[in-house]
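User: Structure please.
Assistant: Input sequence and predicted structure:
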Amino acid sequence: MQLAHEDLARLVRTALREDLSETGDLTSTAILAPETSAAGRFVAREPLTLAGIPFAAQVYHQLAPALAFAVFRRDGDDVPAGECVAAVRGSAQAILAGERTALNFLMRLSGIATATRRCVKEIEGTGAVILDTRKTAPGLRAADKYAVATGGGRNHRFGLYDAAMIKDTHLAVDPDIARAVAALRERGIEAERITVEVRDLDQLDRAIAAGAGRALLDNMDLETLRRAVARAAGRIVLEASGGLRPGRLRAVAETGVDCLSLGFLTHSTPAADLAMEMESQR
C-alpha cells in the first residue's frame, strides 16, 4: 500500500496539534535555550518489523525543516533489538517536541507490522493470504492499513464506500441474500466487490446462487471450513474470520480457504518497543 503524501502530512499535523496545541512544549522551551543542539536516536528495544519511518520523518519536517533526519533502516525491515533505525540532529527543543509523536507512530505501526509478518510466516506455503479489517483506530485507518501492508498482509476494503459486505446485521433486518446481492448488482457493483457474511453452509449456498463474489465464513470450525471449501468448489472467494490469532492460523489456512481476515492486527496488537536516546551536541 502506498500512503499518499497528503494523508501522511494530515495525520502527522493532527497528531502534533493534539500534543502541542497552540502553546507548544512548556517544559523544553522553559529549560533549554533555543540555540541548544542535540541528537536523538530511535532504537528498537525488541526484535520487530519496522513501520512508521515516513511518519517520524514527517513529524520533524513539520516541526523544524532545518533538522537533519537520517534513516538507517527502512519500513518492512526485520530489525534486531538494540539497533538504531533513525536519528535526528539539531534544535533540542524541536527534537523533544516531536519525540512522543514520532514514537507513537513508530511503536503502533511497527507493532502492527510485526504481528502481520508473524501471521504471514505462519501460513506460508498454504496459498492463503492475511487480510486486515476496518477495526482500526479512529482517524488512523490509512496508517494502520499501511502497517499491515508493510508487514506483508493485504488490505481489505478501506471503508464502506469501496466494496460491499452484506453482514449478519443486514441479514438480521432482511434475511434475503438473493435480494441483497441483486440490489447491489443493480447499482453497478461488480460481483468481486460483494461479500456475504455467512454463518452456515446453507447461507453459503445462497450467496453462491445469488452471484456474490466473496463469502466471509464467520466463526466456523475447521471441519465446517473444509466442507465450505468443498461446497464452493472455486465458485466464490472464501474468507475465514472470527477470533483468529497467531498460533492457530495454519490449520485454518490448510482447510483451503483463500483468505484469513484478522481484526486483532489493528485493534489489539501490542505496540512495539522503541525509544529515543538523547545526547547533547556541544
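The chain has a mean pLDDT of 97.
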